[in-house]
Amino acid sequence: MTHSSVFLTVIIATLSVVSAGFDLGQSTRCVPIPNQLTVCQNVGYSEMRLPNFLGHSSLEGEVVPRSEDWRPLLQTGCHPQVQAFLCSLIAPVCLDTFILPCRSLCVAVRDSCAPALACQGHAWPRALACERFPAEEDMCLLPLPKFSLVAKDLPKPACQNCPSVEDSPAMKTVLDTLCLHDFAVTAKLHRRRLPSGGEPEFRVEGRVEFIRQGPLLPYDTQHLLQQWLLINLRCAQVLVRPGRSQLYVIAGTVQPDASLAITRLFPWHKKDANIAVATRKWKHHRC
């Protein structure tokens, strides 16, 4: 069973307490958020209630190890408040009253993050059905409007069919690709070897260089490509061999809804003179 499959199984099992109705009248205690609970560091508070809203009462035996099953979703950056949403259940803030996420926050996170789960072949867990969370007139954790406004306009990665990859392309092929796409960059993709049974880790190494910038933002592009790899793991597994780094020319488009689609990749090997010549000619090329 892959880590993502375990992730979904554990979520459905442990969140049954939410679907059954958490007993807000039960006895609780406040404890410091431990350093080992890495997914809920830097959330704006330092103490949490136990048991949490998932019914976990043991930090070392339940909270910390089971929290790691949320990491794949957090790493995709699928919504600016996904950490706040999840940690309000995993490590609820220690106040005089219980604070659950509002239904509107659940809807916002679900609408952004369900596609990331769907890309792994999983549906949004029924135990996290948003109607089970309180409405805004109750005391609950609200979505922050500024996040939805900012995120609406910025390019964002999306689940997609894997892009085509062509080795040793002709110079004309590269130039035509640059003309037909909104953006093109060079980036080195790396796949880290993990112990047997572990999920591979992918990252963008070094700087991302623009050939055609288009609507991408220089300060955000490396993070954007990193998120694309995390969401489209099955594509990443095909693109990069274990323990290797590969330099690519990556071309794609940004859709009207701001979703980014990578549609063409050229592995750039030292012997590929056509790519080198095409990228130089591009500065003066007229499509």
UniProtKB/TrEMBL annotation:
<dbReference type="Pfam" id="PF01392">
    <property type="entry name" value="Fz"/>
</dbReference>
<feature type="domain" description="FZ">
    <location>
        <begin position="25"/>
        <end position="143"/>
    </location>
</feature>
<dbReference type="InterPro" id="IPR015526">
    <property type="entry name" value="Frizzled/SFRP"/>
</dbReference>
<comment type="similarity">
    <text>Belongs to the secreted frizzled-related protein (sFRP) family.</text>
</comment>
<dbReference type="InterPro" id="IPR001134">
    <property type="entry name" value="Netrin_domain"/>
</dbReference>
<protein>
    <recommendedName>
        <fullName>Secreted frizzled-related protein 2</fullName>
    </recommendedName>
</protein>
<dbReference type="GO" id="GO:0030154">
    <property type="term" value="P:cell differentiation"/>
</dbReference>
<dbReference type="GO" id="GO:0035567">
    <property type="term" value="P:non-canonical Wnt signaling pathway"/>
</dbReference>
<keyword id="KW-1015">Disulfide bond</keyword>
<feature type="signal peptide">
    <location>
        <begin position="1"/>
        <end position="20"/>
    </location>
</feature>
<keyword id="KW-0221">Differentiation</keyword>
<dbReference type="InterPro" id="IPR036790">
    <property type="entry name" value="Frizzled_dom_sf"/>
</dbReference>
<dbReference type="GO" id="GO:0060070">
    <property type="term" value="P:canonical Wnt signaling pathway"/>
</dbReference>
<dbReference type="GO" id="GO:0017147">
    <property type="term" value="F:Wnt-protein binding"/>
</dbReference>
<feature type="domain" description="NTR">
    <location>
        <begin position="159"/>
        <end position="287"/>
    </location>
</feature>
<keyword id="KW-0964">Secreted</keyword>
<keyword id="KW-0732">Signal</keyword>
<dbReference type="GO" id="GO:0005615">
    <property type="term" value="C:extracellular space"/>
</dbReference>
<dbReference type="InterPro" id="IPR020067">
    <property type="entry name" value="Frizzled_dom"/>
</dbReference>
<feature type="disulfide bond">
    <location>
        <begin position="106"/>
        <end position="130"/>
    </location>
</feature>
<keyword id="KW-0217">Developmental protein</keyword>
<keyword id="KW-0879">Wnt signaling pathway</keyword>
